[in-house]
Task: inverse folding
């Protein structure tokens, strides 16, 4: 069974950069499209970025496009989210998630496996 563990969150200042990692255990990571989502208290979990299983295509929410980069290394079973030019509104708990093999989506409802989340705080 696939399990996901995020790391790399923390407290940063406006304009700083942060790199989140998502370590996957299990043999199916390389066959699954992956995504990053974020959530603040009282709000729904929002899509941030997604990447196909082969890393040939990436997708971003409009408010992170040009600032965030999603990437993966299937040999290392690892997904990353490079976040640059961080803003106060980027503060949230960030989750990595996996779709079922063969699927692709940006809706959180379609993701099958979730990590526990990592907190990102941006101070102004």
Result:
């Amino acid at each position: 069974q696939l399990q996901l563990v995020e790391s790399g969150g923390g407290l940063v200042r406006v304009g700083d950069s942060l790199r989140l990692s998502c370590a996957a255990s299990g043999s199916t990571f390389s066959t699954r499209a992956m995504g990053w989502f974020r959530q603040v208290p009282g709000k729904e979990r929002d899509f941030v970025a997604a990447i196909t299983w082969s890393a040939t295509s990436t997708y971003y929410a409009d408010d992170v496009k040009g600032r965030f980069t999603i990437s993966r290394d299937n040999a290392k079973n690892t997904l990353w989210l490079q976040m640059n030019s961080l803003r106060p509104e980027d503060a949230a708990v960030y989750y990595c998630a996996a779709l079922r093999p063969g699927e692709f989506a940006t809706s959180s409802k379609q993701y099958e496996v979730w990590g526990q989340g990592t907190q990102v705080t941006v101070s102004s």
In short: The chain has a mean pLDDT of 97. The two ends are 41 Å apart (CA to CA). Residues 34 and 114 are 10 Å apart (CA to CA).
